[in-house]
Amino acid sequence: ISQETATLKVGETVELTATVMPEDATDKTVSWTSNDEAVATVDAEGKVTAVALGEAEITATAADGSGISANCLVTVNPVLAESLIISPESWNGVANESFRITAVVNPDNTTDKTLMWSTNDATIATVDDNGLVSVLKEGSCRITVATVDGSNLTAECIITGMSGIDCIFDVDDAKADVYNIKGMLLKRQCDKTELKLLAPGVYVVRNNKGTTTILIH
Questions:
Q1: Reduced to 3 states, what is the DSSP secondary structure of residue 162?
Q2: What one-character DSSP code corresponds to residue 45?
Q3: In Å, how far are 6, 75, 102, 181, 217 from 13, measured between CA atoms?
């Protein structure tokens, strides 16, 4: 047989050949078999195809009734991930919102695409096994996703949770005019800190970003 061992990845193939001796043997045909077709198959021409992880013994047997055979031990290894791409890589929004991070493992035939998700601060944001992030309060944290197939790939999404008031301002020292729900001006040129100290209620805030209705509670 052309080789006694072969190492393949799932989906790969190898061509084996068998030579029957002596050269003047009357019948030089051979039959090919696999002792575990769930791991590797072989066709009538000796072409081996890796199917799943594990080991399989491929046997070439002389067809002349002599019972002579030769073996090749095929080891099938996994196809490891080569890249891990997530979207989004960063998120800025209001606390108490949820969103999903999508993750793509390449290549398409990666054997194990299982991912492990984690957060470095569960008081700010949590993440489930499907990449669903729940932002709990204001602050920043990091969501990490990692492959578990041995390729050791990771990707991160930086979370910044803001209050609804924070989203109104484009810079920290920005100002806004505050009205009650009836349109009466209550405060002119109010900053973020002053807005957060307002009594519970509904207000209309107007600045260079536009007009926004907010609920203070």
A1: strand
A2: T
A3: 10, 12, 33, 72, 66
